[in-house]
Amino acid sequence: MTEQNYSQPAKKSWLAPTISHAVSGTVSLPGSKSLTNRELVLSALADSPSTLVAPLESRDSSLMIGSLENLGTQITRKDNNISILPATTDMDLNAQINCGLAGTVMRFVPPIAALFKGTITFDGDVEARLRPMKTTIDSLRKLGVIVEDEGRGTLPFTITSDGEIAGGEIEIDASASSQFVSGLLLAAPRFTKGLKLRHVGESVPSLPHIEMTIACLKARGVDILQPEENCWVVEPGPIHGREVVIEPDLSNAGPFLAAALVSGGTVRVKNWPIETTQVGKHFVEILQRMGGTITFNGTDLLISGDGSIKGLDIDLSIGGELAPVIIALAVLADSPSRITGIAHLRGHETDRLLALTSEINKIGGNAKELEDGIEITPTDSMHGAIWDTYADHRMATAAAIIGLRVEDITVSDVSVVSKTMPDFVSMWSELIGAN
Questions:
Q1: Domain membership flag for residue 107
Q2: What is the pLDDT of residue 6?
Q3: Which of 57, 321, 349, 359 is catalytic?
Q4: For residues 385 and 393, what is the distance between their CA atoms, to the nearest angstrom?
Q5: Which domain does 47 fall in, by range?
Q6: What is the CATH number of the domain that holds 174?
Q7: Do 278 and 199 share a structural domain?
Q8: pTM for this structure?
Q9: Is 321 a catalytic residue?
Q10: Residue 228 pairs with which residues in a beta bridge?
Q11: What is the distance between the alpha carbons of residues 155 and 135, in angstroms, rounded to a whole number?
Protein backbone atom coordinates (compact mmCIF):
# COMPACT_ATOMS: atom_id res chain seq x y z
CA MET A 1 0.00 0.00 0.00
CA THR A 2 2.90 2.33 -0.76
CA GLU A 3 0.63 4.82 -2.52
CA GLN A 4 -1.15 5.76 0.70
CA ASN A 5 -0.49 9.26 2.04
CA TYR A 6 -0.13 9.45 5.81
CA SER A 7 0.97 13.10 6.00
CA GLN A 8 -1.17 16.05 7.02
CA PRO A 9 -2.98 17.54 4.00
CA ALA A 10 -2.30 21.13 2.99
CA LYS A 11 -4.55 23.62 4.80
CA LYS A 12 -7.38 25.09 2.75
CA SER A 13 -10.07 27.61 3.71
CA TRP A 14 -13.67 27.12 2.53
CA LEU A 15 -16.71 29.36 2.42
CA ALA A 16 -19.59 27.26 3.75
CA PRO A 17 -22.49 27.64 1.28
CA THR A 18 -25.76 29.23 2.40
CA ILE A 19 -29.00 28.15 0.75
CA SER A 20 -32.63 29.27 0.65
CA HIS A 21 -34.14 26.18 -0.96
CA ALA A 22 -35.22 22.79 0.38
CA VAL A 23 -32.55 20.15 -0.09
CA SER A 24 -33.54 17.02 -2.00
CA GLY A 25 -30.93 14.41 -2.72
CA THR A 26 -29.32 11.03 -2.10
CA VAL A 27 -26.10 10.30 -0.23
CA SER A 28 -23.90 7.21 -0.43
CA LEU A 29 -21.62 7.18 2.60
CA PRO A 30 -18.04 5.91 2.72
CA GLY A 31 -17.23 2.93 4.93
CA SER A 32 -17.21 3.15 8.72
CA LYS A 33 -13.90 4.34 10.14
CA SER A 34 -14.55 2.55 13.43
CA LEU A 35 -15.26 -0.76 11.73
CA THR A 36 -12.50 -0.41 9.13
CA ASN A 37 -9.77 0.15 11.71
CA ARG A 38 -10.99 -2.59 14.05
CA GLU A 39 -11.12 -5.09 11.21
CA LEU A 40 -7.68 -4.04 9.96
CA VAL A 41 -6.24 -4.71 13.42
CA LEU A 42 -7.91 -8.09 13.77
CA SER A 43 -6.87 -9.07 10.25
CA ALA A 44 -3.24 -8.29 11.11
CA LEU A 45 -3.44 -10.66 14.10
CA ALA A 46 -5.50 -13.38 12.41
CA ASP A 47 -4.51 -16.98 11.71
CA SER A 48 -5.25 -16.65 7.98
CA PRO A 49 -5.72 -13.93 5.35
CA SER A 50 -8.71 -11.57 5.42
CA THR A 51 -10.52 -9.37 2.92
CA LEU A 52 -12.31 -6.12 3.73
CA VAL A 53 -14.99 -5.10 1.24
CA ALA A 54 -15.78 -1.38 0.83
CA PRO A 55 -13.52 -0.15 3.65
CA LEU A 56 -13.02 3.53 4.37
CA GLU A 57 -10.35 5.36 2.41
CA SER A 58 -9.24 8.31 4.53
CA ARG A 59 -6.26 9.61 6.44
CA ASP A 60 -7.22 7.67 9.59
CA SER A 61 -7.49 4.36 7.73
CA SER A 62 -4.28 5.10 5.82
CA LEU A 63 -2.47 5.73 9.08
CA MET A 64 -3.74 2.42 10.44
CA ILE A 65 -2.61 0.62 7.30
CA GLY A 66 0.81 2.23 7.51
CA SER A 67 1.16 1.26 11.16
CA LEU A 68 0.28 -2.36 10.52
CA GLU A 69 2.59 -2.53 7.52
CA ASN A 70 5.42 -1.28 9.74
CA LEU A 71 4.69 -4.27 11.96
CA GLY A 72 5.07 -6.64 9.01
CA THR A 73 1.48 -6.98 7.80
CA GLN A 74 1.08 -7.24 4.02
CA ILE A 75 -1.84 -5.16 2.76
CA THR A 76 -2.92 -4.80 -0.85
CA ARG A 77 -5.85 -2.99 -2.46
CA LYS A 78 -7.75 -4.19 -5.51
CA ASP A 79 -10.81 -2.33 -6.75
CA ASN A 80 -12.87 -1.60 -3.60
CA ASN A 81 -11.36 -4.37 -1.48
CA ILE A 82 -8.37 -4.68 0.84
CA SER A 83 -6.55 -8.00 1.28
CA ILE A 84 -4.56 -8.53 4.47
CA LEU A 85 -1.86 -11.15 5.02
CA PRO A 86 -1.23 -11.34 8.78
CA ALA A 87 2.09 -10.36 10.29
CA THR A 88 4.35 -12.87 12.00
CA THR A 89 5.44 -11.89 15.50
CA ASP A 90 8.73 -13.81 15.54
CA MET A 91 10.74 -10.96 14.00
CA ASP A 92 12.84 -8.42 15.87
CA LEU A 93 11.41 -5.00 15.04
CA ASN A 94 12.78 -1.50 15.21
CA ALA A 95 9.78 0.44 13.93
CA GLN A 96 8.34 3.94 13.86
CA ILE A 97 4.56 4.36 14.06
CA ASN A 98 2.94 7.58 12.82
CA CYS A 99 -0.39 7.95 14.62
CA GLY A 100 -1.28 11.23 12.90
CA LEU A 101 -4.32 12.41 14.85
CA ALA A 102 -6.07 9.02 14.79
CA GLY A 103 -7.25 7.88 18.20
CA THR A 104 -7.75 4.34 16.96
CA VAL A 105 -4.10 4.15 15.88
CA MET A 106 -2.64 5.62 19.07
CA ARG A 107 -4.86 3.46 21.36
CA PHE A 108 -5.22 0.21 19.33
CA VAL A 109 -1.73 -0.30 17.89
CA PRO A 110 0.50 -0.14 21.03
CA PRO A 111 -0.98 -3.32 22.61
CA ILE A 112 -0.57 -5.08 19.25
CA ALA A 113 2.98 -3.82 18.80
CA ALA A 114 3.85 -5.24 22.22
CA LEU A 115 3.23 -8.71 20.75
CA PHE A 116 6.37 -8.20 18.67
CA LYS A 117 9.93 -8.46 19.91
CA GLY A 118 11.76 -5.18 19.55
CA THR A 119 11.55 -1.44 20.08
CA ILE A 120 8.72 0.58 18.56
CA THR A 121 8.28 4.35 18.78
CA PHE A 122 4.91 6.09 18.57
CA ASP A 123 4.37 9.73 17.63
CA GLY A 124 1.90 11.79 15.63
CA ASP A 125 0.72 15.27 14.73
CA VAL A 126 1.48 18.13 17.10
CA GLU A 127 -2.17 18.08 18.22
CA ALA A 128 -1.95 14.35 18.96
CA ARG A 129 0.56 15.04 21.73
CA LEU A 130 -2.27 16.69 23.68
CA ARG A 131 -4.54 13.64 23.61
CA PRO A 132 -4.71 11.50 26.77
CA MET A 133 -2.62 8.32 26.52
CA LYS A 134 -1.79 7.60 30.15
CA THR A 135 -4.24 4.70 30.38
CA THR A 136 -2.68 2.91 27.42
CA ILE A 137 0.83 3.51 28.76
CA ASP A 138 -0.06 2.37 32.28
CA SER A 139 -1.89 -0.74 31.05
CA LEU A 140 1.11 -1.81 28.95
CA ARG A 141 3.37 -1.46 31.96
CA LYS A 142 0.99 -3.59 34.02
CA LEU A 143 1.31 -6.22 31.29
CA GLY A 144 5.09 -6.23 31.61
CA VAL A 145 5.95 -4.03 28.62
CA ILE A 146 8.68 -1.40 28.99
CA VAL A 147 7.33 2.05 28.03
CA GLU A 148 9.46 5.19 27.93
CA ASP A 149 7.44 8.42 27.84
CA GLU A 150 9.54 10.72 30.08
CA GLY A 151 6.57 10.98 32.43
CA ARG A 152 4.30 12.76 29.95
CA GLY A 153 1.48 10.24 29.68
CA THR A 154 1.13 11.31 26.05
CA LEU A 155 2.80 10.84 22.69
CA PRO A 156 5.63 10.41 21.86
CA PHE A 157 6.60 7.20 23.64
CA THR A 158 8.61 4.06 22.94
CA ILE A 159 7.75 0.50 23.88
CA THR A 160 10.22 -2.36 24.24
CA SER A 161 8.90 -5.90 24.40
CA ASP A 162 10.19 -9.47 24.24
CA GLY A 163 7.13 -10.37 22.15
CA GLU A 164 5.39 -12.29 24.93
CA ILE A 165 2.48 -10.90 26.96
CA ALA A 166 1.21 -13.16 29.73
CA GLY A 167 -2.02 -11.25 30.23
CA GLY A 168 -4.14 -12.17 33.22
CA GLU A 169 -6.15 -9.62 35.20
CA ILE A 170 -5.61 -5.86 35.18
CA GLU A 171 -7.58 -2.75 36.13
CA ILE A 172 -7.61 0.49 34.12
CA ASP A 173 -9.38 3.85 34.18
CA ALA A 174 -11.09 4.25 30.79
CA SER A 175 -13.25 7.23 31.75
CA ALA A 176 -11.48 9.41 29.16
CA SER A 177 -12.11 7.10 26.20
CA SER A 178 -13.66 3.72 25.40
CA GLN A 179 -10.74 3.21 23.00
CA PHE A 180 -8.54 2.28 25.95
CA VAL A 181 -10.78 -0.76 26.53
CA SER A 182 -11.13 -1.67 22.85
CA GLY A 183 -7.37 -1.48 22.23
CA LEU A 184 -6.67 -4.08 24.92
CA LEU A 185 -9.58 -6.33 23.97
CA LEU A 186 -8.45 -6.48 20.33
CA ALA A 187 -4.99 -7.74 21.28
CA ALA A 188 -6.06 -9.91 24.24
CA PRO A 189 -6.70 -13.20 22.37
CA ARG A 190 -2.97 -13.29 21.61
CA PHE A 191 -1.98 -12.93 25.26
CA THR A 192 -0.76 -16.21 26.76
CA LYS A 193 -3.43 -16.22 29.50
CA GLY A 194 -5.94 -14.02 27.73
CA LEU A 195 -7.21 -11.03 29.69
CA LYS A 196 -9.63 -10.11 32.43
CA LEU A 197 -10.03 -6.35 32.12
CA ARG A 198 -11.83 -4.25 34.68
CA HIS A 199 -12.59 -0.54 34.42
CA VAL A 200 -12.39 1.47 37.63
CA GLY A 201 -13.32 5.11 37.83
CA GLU A 202 -16.11 7.20 36.38
CA SER A 203 -18.38 5.82 33.66
CA VAL A 204 -16.90 4.74 30.33
CA PRO A 205 -18.07 7.03 27.49
CA SER A 206 -19.31 5.74 24.13
CA LEU A 207 -20.07 2.20 25.30
CA PRO A 208 -21.44 1.25 21.83
CA HIS A 209 -17.86 1.35 20.56
CA ILE A 210 -16.92 -1.38 23.03
CA GLU A 211 -19.98 -3.36 21.92
CA MET A 212 -18.70 -2.98 18.35
CA THR A 213 -15.29 -4.32 19.38
CA ILE A 214 -16.88 -7.31 21.10
CA ALA A 215 -19.03 -8.07 18.04
CA CYS A 216 -15.98 -7.92 15.75
CA LEU A 217 -14.05 -10.30 18.02
CA LYS A 218 -16.91 -12.79 18.30
CA ALA A 219 -17.35 -12.83 14.52
CA ARG A 220 -13.75 -14.02 14.28
CA GLY A 221 -14.22 -16.87 16.74
CA VAL A 222 -12.88 -15.19 19.87
CA ASP A 223 -14.40 -16.22 23.19
CA ILE A 224 -15.22 -12.98 25.02
CA LEU A 225 -17.62 -12.42 27.91
CA GLN A 226 -18.83 -9.53 30.03
CA PRO A 227 -19.60 -11.19 33.37
CA GLU A 228 -20.51 -7.89 35.02
CA GLU A 229 -20.66 -4.18 34.29
CA ASN A 230 -17.27 -2.68 33.39
CA CYS A 231 -15.56 -6.08 33.27
CA TRP A 232 -14.55 -8.05 30.17
CA VAL A 233 -12.93 -11.49 29.90
CA VAL A 234 -11.12 -12.60 26.73
CA GLU A 235 -9.94 -16.20 26.45
CA PRO A 236 -6.65 -16.88 24.66
CA GLY A 237 -7.01 -18.38 21.22
CA PRO A 238 -6.88 -17.78 17.49
CA ILE A 239 -8.39 -14.84 15.65
CA HIS A 240 -9.79 -16.19 12.40
CA GLY A 241 -9.32 -14.53 9.06
CA ARG A 242 -12.55 -13.70 7.24
CA GLU A 243 -14.20 -11.56 4.59
CA VAL A 244 -15.93 -8.55 6.06
CA VAL A 245 -18.26 -6.11 4.29
CA ILE A 246 -17.76 -2.73 5.98
CA GLU A 247 -20.97 -0.83 6.77
CA PRO A 248 -21.41 2.82 5.71
CA ASP A 249 -20.22 5.29 8.35
CA LEU A 250 -23.34 6.42 10.19
CA SER A 251 -21.55 9.06 12.26
CA ASN A 252 -20.52 10.74 9.01
CA ALA A 253 -24.18 10.72 7.96
CA GLY A 254 -24.90 13.41 10.54
CA PRO A 255 -24.26 16.58 8.50
CA PHE A 256 -26.28 15.30 5.55
CA LEU A 257 -29.21 14.30 7.76
CA ALA A 258 -29.02 17.71 9.43
CA ALA A 259 -29.28 19.44 6.05
CA ALA A 260 -32.83 18.09 5.67
CA LEU A 261 -33.90 19.61 8.99
CA VAL A 262 -32.23 22.97 8.37
CA SER A 263 -33.57 23.40 4.83
CA GLY A 264 -36.98 21.76 5.20
CA GLY A 265 -36.05 19.17 2.60
CA THR A 266 -35.60 15.43 2.19
CA VAL A 267 -32.39 13.40 2.16
CA ARG A 268 -32.04 9.73 1.33
CA VAL A 269 -29.07 7.81 2.77
CA LYS A 270 -28.30 4.63 0.87
CA ASN A 271 -27.76 1.26 2.58
CA TRP A 272 -28.49 2.25 6.17
CA PRO A 273 -27.97 -0.91 8.28
CA ILE A 274 -31.08 -1.83 10.27
CA GLU A 275 -29.03 -3.72 12.87
CA THR A 276 -25.65 -2.24 13.73
CA THR A 277 -23.28 -1.55 16.61
CA GLN A 278 -22.40 1.88 15.21
CA VAL A 279 -23.17 4.79 17.52
CA GLY A 280 -24.50 6.75 14.53
CA LYS A 281 -27.67 4.67 14.65
CA HIS A 282 -28.83 6.96 17.45
CA PHE A 283 -29.24 9.80 14.96
CA VAL A 284 -32.58 8.20 14.05
CA GLU A 285 -34.11 8.77 17.47
CA ILE A 286 -32.35 12.05 18.24
CA LEU A 287 -33.18 13.81 14.98
CA GLN A 288 -36.82 12.80 15.27
CA ARG A 289 -36.85 14.54 18.65
CA MET A 290 -35.46 17.63 16.93
CA GLY A 291 -38.27 17.71 14.37
CA GLY A 292 -37.23 15.31 11.64
CA THR A 293 -39.45 12.65 10.11
CA ILE A 294 -37.64 9.39 9.36
CA THR A 295 -38.84 6.46 7.31
CA PHE A 296 -37.16 3.48 5.66
CA ASN A 297 -37.51 2.43 2.04
CA GLY A 298 -35.89 -0.96 1.74
CA THR A 299 -32.32 -0.47 2.96
CA ASP A 300 -32.44 3.31 2.52
CA LEU A 301 -33.16 5.85 5.25
CA LEU A 302 -35.21 8.94 4.34
CA ILE A 303 -35.27 12.00 6.57
CA SER A 304 -37.49 15.05 6.02
CA GLY A 305 -37.80 18.35 7.83
CA ASP A 306 -40.08 21.38 7.68
CA GLY A 307 -37.40 24.00 8.37
CA SER A 308 -38.07 24.24 12.08
CA ILE A 309 -35.71 22.62 14.59
CA LYS A 310 -36.63 21.75 18.17
CA GLY A 311 -34.15 22.28 20.96
CA LEU A 312 -33.61 19.38 23.35
CA ASP A 313 -32.13 18.36 26.66
CA ILE A 314 -30.09 15.21 26.13
CA ASP A 315 -27.35 13.13 27.74
CA LEU A 316 -25.05 12.10 24.86
CA SER A 317 -22.62 9.99 26.88
CA ILE A 318 -23.59 7.04 24.70
CA GLY A 319 -22.10 8.68 21.62
CA GLY A 320 -20.15 11.89 22.03
CA GLU A 321 -19.03 11.87 18.40
CA LEU A 322 -22.63 12.78 17.48
CA ALA A 323 -22.46 15.93 19.60
CA PRO A 324 -21.04 18.40 17.04
CA VAL A 325 -23.97 17.74 14.67
CA ILE A 326 -26.55 17.99 17.45
CA ILE A 327 -24.93 21.16 18.80
CA ALA A 328 -24.84 22.75 15.33
CA LEU A 329 -28.55 22.03 14.91
CA ALA A 330 -29.24 23.39 18.40
CA VAL A 331 -27.65 26.71 17.35
CA LEU A 332 -30.33 26.98 14.64
CA ALA A 333 -33.19 25.65 16.77
CA ASP A 334 -36.37 27.43 17.88
CA SER A 335 -35.81 26.74 21.60
CA PRO A 336 -32.87 26.26 24.00
CA SER A 337 -30.84 23.07 24.24
CA ARG A 338 -28.68 21.40 26.84
CA ILE A 339 -26.30 18.67 25.67
CA THR A 340 -24.50 16.86 28.52
CA GLY A 341 -22.57 13.67 29.23
CA ILE A 342 -19.78 14.70 26.86
CA ALA A 343 -16.96 15.85 29.13
CA HIS A 344 -14.70 13.32 27.39
CA LEU A 345 -14.85 15.42 24.22
CA ARG A 346 -12.15 17.59 25.78
CA GLY A 347 -9.71 14.79 24.93
CA HIS A 348 -10.68 14.29 21.29
CA GLU A 349 -8.94 15.86 18.30
CA THR A 350 -9.21 19.09 20.28
CA ASP A 351 -11.11 20.24 23.36
CA ARG A 352 -14.39 20.14 21.44
CA LEU A 353 -16.42 21.74 24.21
CA LEU A 354 -14.16 24.77 24.33
CA ALA A 355 -13.80 24.89 20.54
CA LEU A 356 -17.52 24.68 19.79
CA THR A 357 -18.41 27.23 22.48
CA SER A 358 -15.76 29.65 21.21
CA GLU A 359 -16.74 29.44 17.55
CA ILE A 360 -20.51 29.61 18.18
CA ASN A 361 -20.06 32.73 20.29
CA LYS A 362 -17.67 34.20 17.72
CA ILE A 363 -20.47 34.21 15.10
CA GLY A 364 -22.95 35.84 17.50
CA GLY A 365 -24.48 32.69 18.95
CA ASN A 366 -25.11 32.06 22.62
CA ALA A 367 -23.28 29.00 23.90
CA LYS A 368 -22.22 28.30 27.47
CA GLU A 369 -19.68 25.62 28.31
CA LEU A 370 -20.78 23.32 31.13
CA GLU A 371 -18.73 20.92 33.22
CA ASP A 372 -19.83 18.04 31.00
CA GLY A 373 -21.45 19.67 27.99
CA ILE A 374 -22.84 22.79 26.34
CA GLU A 375 -25.95 24.91 26.86
CA ILE A 376 -27.26 26.79 23.83
CA THR A 377 -29.79 29.60 23.61
CA PRO A 378 -30.80 30.44 20.02
CA THR A 379 -30.32 34.03 18.84
CA ASP A 380 -31.19 36.08 15.75
CA SER A 381 -27.90 37.98 15.78
CA MET A 382 -25.56 35.50 14.14
CA HIS A 383 -23.21 36.70 11.44
CA GLY A 384 -20.33 35.60 9.27
CA ALA A 385 -16.81 35.07 10.60
CA ILE A 386 -13.81 32.80 10.22
CA TRP A 387 -14.66 29.50 11.90
CA ASP A 388 -11.50 27.85 13.23
CA THR A 389 -11.34 24.06 12.97
CA TYR A 390 -8.66 23.25 15.58
CA ALA A 391 -7.43 20.36 13.36
CA ASP A 392 -10.79 18.67 14.03
CA HIS A 393 -12.89 17.23 11.19
CA ARG A 394 -16.14 17.50 13.12
CA MET A 395 -15.58 21.21 13.72
CA ALA A 396 -15.56 21.68 9.94
CA THR A 397 -18.78 19.71 9.36
CA ALA A 398 -20.52 21.55 12.22
CA ALA A 399 -19.66 24.83 10.47
CA ALA A 400 -21.13 23.51 7.22
CA ILE A 401 -24.47 22.86 8.95
CA ILE A 402 -24.63 26.32 10.52
CA GLY A 403 -23.48 27.89 7.28
CA LEU A 404 -26.62 26.67 5.53
CA ARG A 405 -28.46 29.53 7.29
CA VAL A 406 -25.75 31.93 8.42
CA GLU A 407 -23.99 33.68 5.57
CA ASP A 408 -20.25 34.14 5.24
CA ILE A 409 -19.05 31.36 7.54
CA THR A 410 -15.51 30.71 6.34
CA VAL A 411 -14.03 27.44 7.57
CA SER A 412 -10.37 28.15 8.33
CA ASP A 413 -9.14 24.71 7.22
CA VAL A 414 -11.55 22.33 5.53
CA SER A 415 -8.74 19.85 4.74
CA VAL A 416 -9.29 18.37 8.22
CA VAL A 417 -12.23 16.38 6.81
CA SER A 418 -9.67 14.06 5.17
CA LYS A 419 -9.45 12.31 8.55
CA THR A 420 -12.65 10.34 7.91
CA MET A 421 -14.40 11.78 4.82
CA PRO A 422 -12.02 13.21 2.21
CA ASP A 423 -14.85 13.85 -0.27
CA PHE A 424 -17.03 15.81 2.15
CA VAL A 425 -16.92 19.14 0.30
CA SER A 426 -17.90 17.64 -3.07
CA MET A 427 -20.60 15.47 -1.45
CA TRP A 428 -21.97 18.49 0.44
CA SER A 429 -22.01 20.70 -2.64
CA GLU A 430 -23.74 18.04 -4.70
CA LEU A 431 -26.41 17.45 -2.06
CA ILE A 432 -27.33 21.08 -1.45
CA GLY A 433 -26.92 22.15 -5.06
CA ALA A 434 -24.11 24.62 -4.45
CA ASN A 435 -21.21 25.37 -6.78
A1: yes
A2: 59
A3: 321
A4: 18
A5: 33-245
A6: 3.65.10.10
A7: no
A8: 0.94
A9: yes
A10: 231
A11: 12
